[in-house]
Write a structure and sequence with these properties.
Low-confidence stretches: none
Radius of gyration: 26 Å
Helix content: 40-55%
Order of helices and strands: HHHHHEHEEHEH
Shape: flat
């Protein structure tokens, strides 16, 4: 047994292991998304150059192109940033992965004061812009159609579903049924 003075537990100075795992998963997902944006030849050139460290002559021989063309295949994706929105692709992919459900993406106009009510019930906000009248136009993803309908119904007159059409119709029919019930009772 230890007979010396008591020493405190050592402090952890290294980052949490969970953070390392999360970072590794994020990098892996980003790499997969990036590779999906490339053509098959571009993917081959990228993997042969970055993973196997082959020179351009070997890559050109492997893919059946000239050395210059192989170099162009590698550089081209970096020169077309507008071809794919990686942030949006990442949101859609991670949302689908997390829920595995029948997700629905909705375009909705909402009073800015109720923005957080929509965002807090949605899985992801894919786009957001202001309309000239001051209302916000949000493109949001909900876990499933029933959840989308419930979330927007809770906002009553503060939100308007613009798309998809079935959601607009469902909310309108629900409101009409309630109005008819109250009209019949008065």
């Amino acid at each position: 047994s230890y007979v010396g003075p008591w020493l405190p537990e050592p402090l952890l100075t290294a980052p949490d292991v969970a953070e390392d795992v999360e970072l590794a998963e994020s990098v892996s997902m980003a790499m997969l998304l990036m590779l999906e944006t490339l053509s098959p030849t571009e993917r081959a050139v990228f993997v042969l150059r970055e993973v196997f460290d082959l020179d351009y002559d070997e890559i050109a021989e492997a893919v059946g192109k000239s050395q210059i063309r192989a170099a162009e295949e590698l550089a081209e994706p970096a020169q077309r940033p507008d071809r794919v929105d990686l942030d949006r692709a990442w949101q859609e992919r991670s949302t689908r992965f997390r829920t595995g459900g029948e997700q629905v993406t909705v375009l909705v106009r909402v009073d800015p004061a109720r923005r957080e009510d929509v965002v807090s019930t949605a899985l992801a906000v894919l786009a957001e812009e202001s309309d000239p009248d001051g209302r916000l136009r949000l493109e949001v993803t909900f876990q499933d159609p029933r959840h989308a309908e419930w979330a927007l119904w809770q906002l009553t007159a503060d939100a308007e579903a613009l798309a998809p059409r079935w959601l607009r119709d469902s909310l309108r029919n629900r409101a009409a049924a309630i109005a008819a019930r109250y009209a019949a009772s008065s």
